What we know:
The protein is α+β, with helices and mostly antiparallel strands. The protein folds into three domains: 12-48; 51-63 and 188-266, 2-Layer Sandwich (Translation Initiation Factor IF3), CATH 3.30.110.170; 66-186, 2-Layer Sandwich (Alpha-Beta Plaits), CATH 3.30.70.2970. 33% of the residues lie in helices and 36% in strands. It is built from four helices and eleven strands, in the order αββαβββαββαββββ. The protein has helices spanning 14-47, 80-100, 160-167, 190-215, and strands at 51-63, 66-77, 108-110, 114-124, 135-155, 177-180, 184-186, 220-228, 232-235, 246-247, 253-266. Strands 2, 3, 4, 5, 6 and 7 form a six-stranded antiparallel sheet that branches. Strands 1, 8, 9, 10 and 11 form a five-stranded mixed sheet that branches. It is elongated, with a radius of gyration of 41 Å.
Amino acid sequence: MKTDxxxxxxxxxxxxxxxxxxxxxxxxxxxxxxxxxxxxxxxSVKIERKTISVTGSARKLIVSDVVTWAGTVTASDPDLVKxxxxxxxxxxxxxxxxxxxxxxESDVTAASIATARHYKKEVLKAPAGTSDxxxxxxxxxVDNYTLTQVISITxxxxxxxxxxxxxxxxxxxxxxxxxxxxxxxxxxxxSELKISMLGEATKDAxxxxxxxxxNAKGRLGKLVEARMGVMQINPKGVTATSAEGINDTTSFExxxxxxxxTKFEVQ
Length: 267
């Protein structure tokens, strides 16, 4: 059958119509999502809080409250028993010297005795007709014994212990073999002090932040972050720093420095 040329064209297939409609919905949804993302980004920038980071510090003079010292007594002899007797006689002289200097007996400690054996050496000649040098080997025969014992002091007597450390080597003239260490000065209340130092360093950081913000015609908000650095304990008048922290034990008077990194809101 022939169709009338004036008859309207056949409508689009139903599947194509449905596909176009679905694409339109997806496009519209994508526009909505893009607008939402842009709006969220804009609001995030607008509401992002402004902050200022400031470092504060605090320094305090402290005085050591404990002093320690150690001396090593040595005795040597081919006979082990004689070496022990010599060491016992020498350590007794050291203890007597320490007690006579005014150190309490309860502050004195004698460590266990360490024994070192030294073996006889034997020289082996090189084979005849060679240019090799003679070799030296150790035998199983003990040639000598060396015994050592450490005498130590832990005391709050900050004046007398250093005197002992300086003068105990005078016993060498009496036949005592002793090596005297340098006294170590300690501060035992560091844990309690760290808390107050953190507070002082934070106050310093707050004052600095307020000064900066006030100069910029702003207003300092609340503290949002605080991180304490390592303590630096130096001899009085020394300002050395280390990433691991410094804990000086060589001086009686020390300075402790605490640093805190802070972050404040700015309004």
